[in-house]
């Protein structure tokens, strides 16, 4: 059973926005954040840590139709110790919208485009979002987001 | 004479590169906008080869997914399988034997050597050194043979299994591998010297596609493109998975940030990998069994989630696996290093010439066709026609 780890001292600036923290094997700290503060959290990352002291490794979306949510995880690697921090947030499945962070961290572009194309999470402010970025056009024409659990591909 | 037609040549030419081209290794479209020779903007289009591996993983059992993970990429298949297998081991709370950990490292380091040799060979070809391409590819074959001796196959190894590996080696194979490593090391040292000293290679690669350390982290570049810009990211050194905590090695970092630095990082890493492979073979633990009995492996996966990282030849590779206690994974998220490097790396082409573009692209790891056109506006009918510059030059005569 995962124990609740404390926030690393370098990331104290996030404490006002943390809903809860827990860990994932091996040695990753998950920080749950309200979706409306995700943009602010990354602003703080940039302001307090600055480049080149962190990078966005990936964005992973997961569909939970029973809970009617889509979970979006931002995997941030803090340098130089290369500690992986997960910023986790939940979005309503009917209207999954979240502010884009590419204005702060352009490295999130690939992850945001992929999550939009495969799961239908709309990143507001990202003008590069488009369907058929990865998904074949015949799937796009049917209006399917392939990684949603109820879609049959 | 009245003017009836004017020729409007656009200031910025659009040059699509890909998705199919003899020099391209992956179906990818780079839409390049060039002002004369200078690249001013690059749009990157993907989607020509998305096979839905993540969805496929959700539809198959955990054990079958190991083979699907190994087929995400041909060149780095053992790293993919290793990263996924370690994720399963975290969910199951299993630990492989020390001998298996050493053998896993050996397979992954052999893969790194041949992958780095391959991309350096491709770079030689792009720069016009076709003989050098063939020579490096010839010597790379020795590493493929070594991988065959170890895993049973040249390319797709299917070597990893939960809590171990699928084949062990004996003394005869160990000696053969050591003698191959000696031969390969000499050749890599020679090619490294060539890339360091050859005037043409230096002229084509030095100060081309310079990436600052700040940009490398802002655009989330990983692997040799990041390390060539002075950012020390290496999952082997930080996550210390498998036997990387016991095997001595250096993380190669260069400050230059240009295409040349990225290629040199690869040669130096290949040399590091040779010495790591030799260390593994000389210090292989004898007290444990590397090959587990597959029939006794657990069939039920408890609920849980895990995020594993591995250092593939092209950079940090990550797997996220979520199990809800059923025989199939609920979610598998794969992020390959090229995904970040190629899609986010469009900024590095800007300001360089079209001729530099393939060198920069290959220094990331994938290339080029050209098509030029101008608009002819018929003033009498107010019609626009697109003609190629070649046709314009010959005045429409064939």
How much helix is in the residues of chain B?
40-55%
Radius of gyration of chain B: 24 Å
Helix/strand order of chain A, N-terminal first: EEHEEEEHEH
State the distance separating the first and last CA atoms of chain B. 26 Å
In the CATH scheme, what's the topology name of chain A? Answer: Beta Polymerase, domain 2
What's the number of helices of chain A? 3
Give the DSSP E fraction of chain A (strand runs of 2 or more residues): 25-35%
Q: Structurally, how many domains make up the residues of chain B?
A: 2
CATH superfamily of the largest domain in chain B: Cytochrome-c3 Hydrogenase, chain B
Quick one: CATH class of chain A?
Answer: Alpha Beta
| Mean of residue pLDDT values of chain B | 85
Percent strand of chain B equals 15-25%
Q: Shape of chain B from CA axes?
A: globular
Please, could you describe this protein's structure?
- The complex is a heterodimer of chains A (about 150) and B (about 400).
- With about 150 residues, chain A is of the alpha/beta class.
- Helices cover about 20% and strands about 35% of the residues of chain A.
- Chain A has one domain: Beta Polymerase, domain 2 (2-Layer Sandwich), CATH 3.30.460.80.
- In chain A, the strands form two sheets. In chain A, strands 1-2-5-4-3 form a five-stranded mixed β-sheet. In chain A, strands 6-7 form a two-stranded parallel sheet.
- In chain A, β3 (about 55-65) and β4 (about 70-80) form a beta hairpin.
- Chain A is globular, with a radius of gyration of 16 Å.
- Chain B has 14 helices and eleven strands.
- The longest helix of chain B has 29 residues, at about 100-125.
- At the A-B interface, β3, β4 and α2 of A face α8, α10, β7, β8 and β9 of B.
């Amino acid at each position: 059973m995962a124990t609740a780890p404390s926030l690393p001292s370098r990331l104290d600036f996030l404490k006002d926005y943390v809903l809860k923290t827990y860990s994932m094997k091996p040695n990753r700290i998950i920080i749950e954040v309200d979706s409306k503060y995700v943009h602010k959290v990354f602003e703080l990352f940039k302001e307090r840590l600055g480049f080149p002291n962190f990078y966005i490794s990936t964005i992973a979306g997961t569909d939970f139709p029973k809970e009617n949510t889509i979970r979006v995880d931002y995997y941030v690697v803090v340098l130089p110790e290369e500690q992986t921090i997960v910023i986790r947030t939940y979005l309503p499945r009917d209207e999954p919208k979240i502010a884009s962070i590419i204005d702060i961290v352009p490295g999130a572009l690939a992850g945001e485009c992929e999550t939009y194309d495969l799961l239908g999470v709309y990143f507001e402010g990202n003008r590069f979002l488009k369907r058929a970025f990865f998904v074949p056009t015949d799937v796009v024409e049917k209006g399917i987001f392939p990684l949603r659990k109820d879609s049959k591909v | 004479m009245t003017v009836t037609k004017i020729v409007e040549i656009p200031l910025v030419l659009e040059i699509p590169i890909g998705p199919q081209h003899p020099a391209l290794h992956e179906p990818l479209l780079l839409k390049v906008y060039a002002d004369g020779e200078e690249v001013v903007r690059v749009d990157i289009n993907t989607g020509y080869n998305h096979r839905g591996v993540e969805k496929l993983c959700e539809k198959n059992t955990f054990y079958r997914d190991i083979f699907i993970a190994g087929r995400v990429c041909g060149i780095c298949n053992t790293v993919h399988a290793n990263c996924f297998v370690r994720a399963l081991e975290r969910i199951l709370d299993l630990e492989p034997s020390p001998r298996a950990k050493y053998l896993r490292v050996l397979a992954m380091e052999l893969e790194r050597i041949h992958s780095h040799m391959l991309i350096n060979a491709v770079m030689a070809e792009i720069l016009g050194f076709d003989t050098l391409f063939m020579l490096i590819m010839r010597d790379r074959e020795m590493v493929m043979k070594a991988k065959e001796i170890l895993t049973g196959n040249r390319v797709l190894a299917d070597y990893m299994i939960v809590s171990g590996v699928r084949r062990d080696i004996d003394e005869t194979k160990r000696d053969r591998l050591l003698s191959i490593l000696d031969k390969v090391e000499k050749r890599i040292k020679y090619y490294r010297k060539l890339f360091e000293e050859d005037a043409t290679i230096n002229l084509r690669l030095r100060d081309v596609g310079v990436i600052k350390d700040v940009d490398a982290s802002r655009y989330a570049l990983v692997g040799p493109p990041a390390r060539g810009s002075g950012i020390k990211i290496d999952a082997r050194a930080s996550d210390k998975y498998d036997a990387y905590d016991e095997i001595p090695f250096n993380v190669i970092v260069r400050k230059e940030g240009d295409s040349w630095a990225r290629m040199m990082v690869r040669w130096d890493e290949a040399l590091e990998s040779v010495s790591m492979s030799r260390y593994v073979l000389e210090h292989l633990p004898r007290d444990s069994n590397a090959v587990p009995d597959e029939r006794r492996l657990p069939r039920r996966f408890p609920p849980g989630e895990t995020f594993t990282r591995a250092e593939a030849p092209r950079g940090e590779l990550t797997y996220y696996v979520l199990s809800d206690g059923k025989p199939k994974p609920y979610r598998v998220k794969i992020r390959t290093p090229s995904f970040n490097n190629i899609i986010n790396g469009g900024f590095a082409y800007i300001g360089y010439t079209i001729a530099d573009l393939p060198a920069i692209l290959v220094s990331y790891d994938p290339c080029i066709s050209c098509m030029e056109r101008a608009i002819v506006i018929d003033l009498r009918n107010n019609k626009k026609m697109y003609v190629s510059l070649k046709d314009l030059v010959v005045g429409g005569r064939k």
